[in-house]
Amino acid sequence: MTSSVEKKLAELGITLPSPKPPIANYVPAVRTGNLLFISGQVSVDGEGKMATGKLGAGVDVAAGQAAAKLCAINILAQVKAAIGDLDKVVRIVKLVGFVNATGDFTDHPKVVNGCSDFFVEALGDKGRHARSAVGVSGLPFDASVEVEAIVEIA
Questions:
Q1: Who contacts 130 (Cβ-Cβ below 8 Å, separation ≥6)?
Q2: Which domains does the chain have, with CATH numbers?
Q3: d(CA 131, CA 64)
Q4: Residue 96, Cβ neighbours under 10 Å: how many?
Q5: CA distance 84 to 64
Q6: Cβ-contact 136, 101 below 8 angstroms
Q7: pLDDT of the chain along its 154 residues, tens only?
Q8: Which strand (E) or helix (H) includes residue 37?
Q9: What does pTM read for this prediction?
Q10: 114 vs 6, 109, 154, CA distance in Å?
């Protein structure tokens, strides 16, 4: 049976990719009680192509927002792998978005909106969350964006 969240994703033209395995010594998700902590997900699509480069140095805000949306899609793929059914998501509690940016770039919140807006579009009020948007000097594999999440689950 397809979950209502997956039906909504299909309406949006989104197919969840197979979750990416960890690239180092960590696990992609940890559940404690009713909280699921999702390790940082980078801006890679289902075909393995990564959005790379620095915001403020050749990557514009719109491209950064698209990269952040990819992070959100990968977060949902990890959530589904961890709990099996996206309808068990009670709420996206907190996101921390890391933006690979030059020192003078200041639109980190606009970039991470690509992730936040997608969660609200896909999950409605369950997608509204607390959030931080942080600029960093580099990310693994020169990814443009990485986002980690805390998700409340039933």
A1: 93, 94, 95
A2: 4-15+26-153 (3.30.1330.40)
A3: 17
A4: 16
A5: 29
A6: yes
A7: 578 999 999 999 999 999 988 889 999 999 999 999 999 999 999 899 999 999 999 999 999 999 999 999 999 999 999 999 999 999 999 999 999 999 999 999 999 999 999 999 999 999 999 999 999 999 999 999 999 999 999 9
A8: strand 35-42
A9: 0.96
A10: 19, 9, 26
